[in-house]
Amino acid sequence: GSVNDRHELAYLAGGAGRMTESVIAQLLGISALVEGAKNKLRATNSSAGEDRAEQALLRRHGDFGLTEAHKAIKPYAADVDADLVRKGLMQDKGTRWQMRFMSTVPYLVLLGMGFYRRSAGVAEGEPVGFLTALMVLTFVLGVVRFAKYDPRTRAGQEALDEARTTHVRLQRAPTPPELGYGVALFGTA
Questions:
Q1: Can you give the three-state secondary structure of the chain, one letter per residue?
Q2: What tens digit of pLDDT does each residue of 3-32 get?
Q3: Whose C-alpha in 52, 74, 111, 146 is 20 to 30 A from the C-alpha of 120?
């Protein structure tokens, strides 16, 4: 089904980091946050938050940066993740690790064959420099594949695509109260 919650859309689009950016953009849009010293943020209106994640940032005293904001919102992002898993829009933690592992198995097989062939080549005195370079490339690609896994289900991807299509105007011209929603769907760029 469709998802209309800004935090769920942000989490679907980019995880906890995107959710943090969305909350900050929303609070900047309604002037509840202002720029502080040295690229930091400062809360100006502690009663402006509409939900627990926004209120967590607005309760902070003094200037804070993106890292501190992410730490403050992290528990709420975990709740959003659990809600999306329950709705079938994201895979659960166990399935994510299993799918990450399964997607890197071909790279591990290639590395195993490469190590076997390299050791045989070294024993025979054959040049193995090109093979070694390909093995390093395979290792790097395997690590990238493991790290860049997308935990969304097809339903989650479809819900995100539907929301982006429906609200395409937010990519070009969001009004200040819509900044959080625009960042949730399309990012800060």
A1: CCCCCHHHHHHHHHHHHHHHHHHHHHHHHCCCEEECCCCCEEECCCCCCCCHHHHHHHCCCCCECHHHHHHHHHHHHHHHHHHHHHCCCECCHHHHHHHHHHHHHHHHHHHHHHHHHHHHHHHHCCCCHHHHHHHHHHHHHHHHHHHCCCCECHHHHHHHHHHHHHCCHHHHCCCHHHHHHHHHHHCCC
A2: 878 999 999 999 999 999 999 999 888 888
A3: 146
